[in-house]
Every structure is written in C-alpha cells, then in structure tokens.
Amino acid sequence: MDRLRIAGGRALRGAVTIAGAKNASLPALAAALLSEAPLTLRNLPAVADIGSMIGVIRALGAHVEQSDPHVAHIDAGTLLSQDAPYDTVRRMRASVLVLGPLLARFGRARVSLPGGCAIGARPVDLHIKALASLGAEIGIEGGLIVANAAGGLKGARIVLGSPSVGATETAMMAATRARGESEIINAAREPEVADLAECLIAMGARIEGAGTHRILIQGDTAFRAASHAIIPDRIEAGTYAIAAAITGGQLELTHARLEQMASVAEVLEATGVRIWPGDRGLIVEGGGGLRGVDITTEPYPGFPTDLQAQFMALMTQAEGAAMIRETVFENRFMHVPELQRLGANIALQGTSALVRGGGRLKGAEVMATDLRASVSLVLAALVAEGETVINRVYHLDRGYEQLDVKLRRCGAEVERLRG
Ligand code: UD1
User: What is the dihedral of CA 345, 374, 233, 296, to 10 degrees?
Assistant: First the structure.
C-alpha cells in the first residue's frame, strides 16, 4: 500500500488544473446504461473510483473504450446482465446508481448493497422508495436489492424525505424511461445533479428544473448517441483553495467556477483568505493571518460535507476557535483523532467539533480513513513542522487525480512511497 511522505512548511504557489467532478462522472457512467445508443463522456477525472464504476458497467456487459483516461466511449447497446453482484459493487457506494437505469431499461435489476467510505450508516432507503413510487416492486434479499417492474415503470410524483443526491439521481435517471411524466419533490440541488440532467438531455431526455427543489421529467425517452463534458470538481477546487490558505501561498485553480462554490468562498473569505476570478479559473491567496469561523455542513448550496475535514485542518491554524457542525453524515469525524496526533486541539461533542486554533502542528505517522479525511491530513501535513507519513493513500487515489504530483508542482515537498 502506497504512503505519502510530506515535509511541511512550504507556501504553495502556481497553478493547479482542476479535474472533472468525480461525483458528476459516477452517475453519468451509470446513465450510459439507460441507452442503446453510445455515450461519450469527456473531462472524467483519472481517479480510482471512475475505474471502479467502469468496472461495474463493464461487468454488466457495456463496452467501454478509453483511449485517454479522461474520455470514455460507452456502448451499452447489448447489455448481458441486470445483476451487479457484491464483488463489483463493494468497493464503492455510488455503484448503487446502476440500479435505477437497469430497472428502468429491463424491468428488473439485482444490485448488491454497496460499500464505500465508512461515514455513518448511509442507507439506500430513499433510492428504494423513489423506485417504488415509479411502480417497482423492490426489496432486499440476501444482501441484494431486488427490483422488478415487469410492465415497465410509470411516471409518478416522487417525494424525497430528505434531498439525497444519490436518490435524486436514481429517480431522475429511472424516470427518463418511465411512461409519462414524473416530478421529483425535495430534490437535491447539487451542481452534480444538474450536470447529470445535462448529460441525460444530451442523450435525448426531457428534464426541467434540475438544480432546483423540483425536477420535472417527461418519460418514454427516445435515446440517441450523445457526448457530454463533465463539470469541474468543486470539492477538488475547494481542497486546493484550502491548501493555498493553510500554507499562506497563492494558487490559480484552473477551470474552477465561483458560482459552484459560493458558500465555500464566503466562508474562506471570512477566515481572511482572498479569492477572485482569474482568466482561467479562480485565484486563491492566503497569508494575511487566519481567523476562526464556525460552519455547519448542509446540502447544496450550503457548506459541503465533502469539505468539512479539510476546513477543520485549516481551522487548526486560525486565531481563535471554530465550531464545526456536521449535519449531513452522522459519523464523519474520523479525521479528528488523526489531526490530534499531529497536535491539533479539537474537542468532539456529538455532531460538533470545537477547534482551538493557533497551535503548531508537528509531523507524525497518521492513517487515512476515508477520502476527505485523508486529504485533511495532507493539508495539515503541509503546515506541520517536520515530516508526516500518511498511510493507506489508496483512499486519496479514489477521488484526487495525481494529488502528490499537483502539490509538488506548486512547491510542496511530497513523496509517494510505493509498496
Ligand atoms: C453524495 C456524494 C458524497 C457527498 C454526499 C452529500 C456522490 C457519488 N457522492 O453521496 O460525496 O458527501 O452526496 O453531499 O455523489 N440517505 C438516506 N437514505 C438514502 C440516501 C441517503 O438516509 O437512501 C442519507 C445519508 O445517509 C446521508 C444523507 O442522506 O446522511 C445524504 O446522503 P446523499 O445526499 O444521498 O449522499 P450520496 O448521494 O451517497
């Protein structure tokens, strides 16, 4: 298993190219299963999770060609299977996104309950309820989600109990092949949901309102060959913005879009970081002293849970205290004991963490536990005194394209230890 060795204390300077959004790419790859016609996806990030999802759709019989790691030509014209078994799905929770497309297209599907990051219980009940609203008979048998809709799905009003990103995507994809009109109420508003809608529209779907609480889908789509470019990754951009801030450097985040990151930019500016749009993306400058700012994670457009761990690392370096409340996932503080190993002063109380900033961090050996937790350790290591070794780097490789290479190009002292 690879490890990262980081020597802290360098201010990052330069440009970082922000990759395509992992969380928009995963549903787009699943959406390819809806159509008999080919789909080309561009601007995919070259990260392990994308490889896993391509593995899942290949196992179902889709032909996927990748002449370049950022482009996939997918032909799901002749799928062989509607069963996605445990060994293909276990690696990643987002594999459950193949359920809706398979069921909608074939009238049946069996998908193993997913694995993925160990952040809370992460049930799939909302996905199941949404598909049941569209007329599926659906239940769990022996660790599998088993779904049937022999006569096809029927358009319906789907009310989500909470605005789950994945359940919104499942419902939207399935509804494109249902008979008649569907409406999703209390839909997730994340930019990745809107991007999936753009992809589906390119494929022939008729969808309105994606990016708002109410999405309208006309079913019976006549699918056609399509090409779609994935939006930039706002979480990767936010992570590098924090890297600039925590090291007191300046980074240009090529392709990053301010409009996708308004709440993050607002919070970072409140800490004293400067952010402005440049010719090619966003420019982020730290260095003027950091102030403690309280945050609460929320569904979009609120502060994203996927940047909570990184922001916590930043707050260890701020003047004063910061209260960080996690409301999206119930067990997303696995980075806290590891940040404490580096010397951070953090008190955990239920779903809140009180960070008392201003202390010096000292390098140590730490363990990556999930994707965003691990990158928070990288950020902390960039300012820690001495050397930090981060174990289990495969978590980082799931969602960050060439993190060590990108950081090195901006002046960080980062080395990947193979093996
Ligand atoms: C997506 C993102 C993930 C991000 C999360 C929240 C992808 C591939 N992943 O995950 O990086 O952290 O959005 O922004 O896009 N829930 C249920 N029942 C369900 C589904 C979800 O109770 O059927 C709960 C979850 O346990 C969680 C909350 O709803 O507490 C939000 O989850 P959801 O928005 O579904 O996240 P994901 O789509 O899994």
Answer: -30
Q: Which domains can be identified in the chain, with CATH numbers?
A: 3-19+232-417 (3.65.10.10), 22-229 (3.65.10.10)
Ligand 1: centre distance to CA 188 (Å): 10
Whether the per-residue pLDDT at 355 is higher than 60: the answer is yes
Q: How far apart are CA 190 and CA 254, in angstroms?
A: 21
Residue of 23, 133, 164, 305 to test ligand 1 pocket, by largest number of atoms within 8 Å of CB: 164
How many C-beta atoms lie closer than 10 Å to residue 300's C-beta? 20
Question: Which are the catalytic amino acids?
Answer: 117
pLDDT tens, residue by residue, 323-336:
999 999 988 999 99
* Digit-coded pLDDT (tens) for 88-131: 777 788 899 999 999 999 999 999 887 654 545 568 999 999 99
- Tokens found for residue 224: 């056609």
Closest CA to 378 of 296, 312, 321: 312
Residues in the chain: 419
The three-state (H, E, C) secondary structure of 42-90, written as one string: ECCCCCHHHHHHHHHHHHCCCEEECCCCCCEEEECCCCCCCEECHHHHC
The answer to whether residues 17 and 159 touch, using CB atoms and an 8 Å cutoff, is no
The model carries a pTM of: 0.97
How close is the Cα of 128 to the center of ligand 1, in Å?
14
